[in-house]
Amino acid sequence: MFITFPKIIAAAAVLFACNVLGGAPQVALSTAVDASHLQGKVLFGYQGFFRRPGQGNDHWMIKFGEIPGPSTPGDVQFDMFPAVEQYPQECLFTTNFLLPDRSKAQLFESNCTGVVDTHFRWMQENSIDGILVQRFYGQFEDASFLQLLQQIRTAAEKYGRSFAVEYDLSPIASSDFSNVVPSLLNDYTHNIAPLITSPAYLHQDGRPVLELWGFGIDKNKLSAPDCAAIFHALRSANPNPYVVLGVQWDWAFDRTQNPDYYNVYLQADVIQPWAVGPYNDPTSYEGFYQRTSIPDKALTDRLGIKYAPSITPGGSARNREGKGKPLGNRYNGSYYEAQLKHMLDLKPFFVFGAMFDEFPESSQVIATLTQSEVPPAANPGFLGIDDGMDHNYYLQLAGRYAVRFHELWQVSV
Ligand SMILES: *[C@@H]1O[C@H](CO)[C@@H](O)[C@H](O)[C@H]1NC(C)=O
Ligand SMILES: CC(=O)N[C@H]1CO[C@H](CO)[C@@H](O)[C@@H]1O
Prior knowledge:
It is a single chain. The protein is of the alpha/beta class. It has one domain: Glycosidases (TIM Barrel). It has helices at residues 7-21, 113-125, 143-159, 180-196, 224-235, 254-257, 259-265, 282-303, 318-321, 334-346, 393-409; strands spanning 41-46, 92-98, 104-108, 130-136, 162-168, 203-204, 207-215, 242-247, 270-273, 306-307, 310-311, 350-353. Strands 1, 4, 5, 6, 7, 8, 9, 10, 11 and 12 form a ten-stranded mixed sheet that branches. Strands 2-3 form a two-stranded antiparallel sheet. Strand 9 (270-273), helix 8 (282-303) and strand 10 form a beta-alpha-beta unit. Helix 2 (113-125) packs parallel to helix 3 (143-159), helix 4 runs parallel beside helix 5 (224-235) and helix 10 runs parallel beside helix 11. The two termini are 22 Å apart. The chain binds 2-acetamido-2-deoxy-beta-D-glucopyranose (2 copies). Residues 51, 55-56, 109, 111-112, 144 line the site of one 2-acetamido-2-deoxy-beta-D-glucopyranose (NAG).
């Protein structure tokens, strides 16, 4: 059983919302997304894990609870600053980092309604279909994340976007496996199943979409039999999900290298290889595309499994991982654009954008300060997007290609 999206009602709701709020930007709004299928969609991974200092694992700071000053390197775990001008003030807090314009840098709290609302408005303005929300194993009791899931549902319905849940299994170790399956099933049944009734929750073939991320990625942690146990338990859960498997970029080699993992992958509805790592500049990306993406697409076609590549605007984790690392490079957007172009060449089932809001790894596509707007301090060193770019340049770039990807599949979104 699934519910198709009431397109006309949602579109009317959007117009109504714009009228009441007033001052909405003059952009051509994309009409409501049809959440009843995945085909031809551009979906982003969504973390939503930023909190204010002192509110648990806030993901901005390493020293939890402290607001870093300009002379305290090592306190932050991000290299790029969000551009916060479109978020409501009540969702922001002020740090001691002095920006070149003498103002103090502000950061946002993800579980603030105005942040989630702004993010979904940006998706609508840029023809992005929706998100896969990363739900970390081991944090199912976090009330602020349950609150966030409700905020996501509300905003997705308001702006006619779509969403589904992605379990991030990377915290699981086989050494401590006894409670894993019951805990996942309990969360799915009690916390996720109620969201599935939303007209914005993604479905395929009449089943709610659920991603399981982390199969075969760290083989020392999660064994193949444990992957199989998780897969089979959830695949037969009620409501019965359509399963996207997040696997390592070199998953196809497991056919001969690790057949016990490979046999689990073969049961997936969609294979979504993780591709952050094996390439990091336009040249190495082109090689990866030729040697890995094209054969992956052909192999999944032969196997009768759908294929969804991951693409990223770049990465940089110097302040998070240590001062020895260089800051990353986005190559003036050309690196991302090369991946977006090949998305059109390959015409995969859907595209996974890594990531919407992941500042700690600098893979975010959302509004980011430019190089001349970040603190000039050498240590910690900060990175900006290129001067002259709109703060939302990368999201807009993805949106322009999303429109062409939709046309390619001839789906109306
Ligand atoms: C966000 O979550 C934290 C707990 O992590 C909570 O203290 C805070 O009140 C929440 N913020 C909002 C705006 O609800
Ligand atoms: C493709 C692209 O984004 N090109 C830009 C690279 O950066 C310069 C400024 O540094 C811009 O003028 C280009 O438009």
